[in-house]
Please model this.
Amino acid sequence: MLLPALAADLVGRNVDVIAAPTLAAALSAKNATSTIPIVFGVSADPVEQGLVASLARPGGNLTGVSFLTVELMPKRVELISELVPHADVIALLVNPKNPQTEPSIRRVQEATGTKGLRLQILKAGSESEIDAAFSTLHELNAGALAVMSDAFFNGRREQLVALAARHAVPAIYEFPEFASTGGLISYGPNLAVVFRLVGIYVGRVLKGTKPAELPVEQPTRFELIVNLKTAKALGLTVPPSILARADEVIE
Model:
């Protein structure tokens, strides 16, 4: 069943609150009801996407958590270029179906331009397109890869990590789960913490608080995870400057 149909079904059941863990789910729920409270967890800017009027004063029947996805992309470029200083070309894997793709590309272009690096954009919106994107890395002379935060990519962690290993490309991801799966390095919010915040908001709504009275939350702590086993397989020496900042080092 597609998301709009699922949202309509929940509205028909007259549920007390709808939890929406992705932008697509949040938009579908918003289109289905203007009265049932909706608590979202999204990587997109909820104001820009029309989910809320503002972060401090959401208004309407929606509130939730925003991951700061776009804002963190330059930091990931900085980290991967520090880890792989000889990489003159950075590839950025994006999902063209994600509304945050263009803002993310602009942020990364600014970051790579400042560092004198060249940026290559790889687009993938399906499993086969992910395979095809990785197959072009060699001809693009990409020395490192940054993977955009995206629900589709997050659901294909094992495929992405396996392809990065097969093509021997150092890659940086958003969530810690990528590094624990075998990815080289990750920097971003802890998903468990983020969705715990979503759960807390759902609880407050069920106790009677209106979504309009709950400001949109944003993560305040970001985790840097380094997988030394993967670094060794890639022939990389992780700089002490990165190890000293790491929240977790996987050996």
Q: What stands out?
A: The domain at 3-68+190-213 is CATH 3.40.50.2300 (Rossmann fold). The radius of gyration is 19 Å. The mean pLDDT is 94. The CA atoms of residues 118 and 134 lie 17 Å apart.
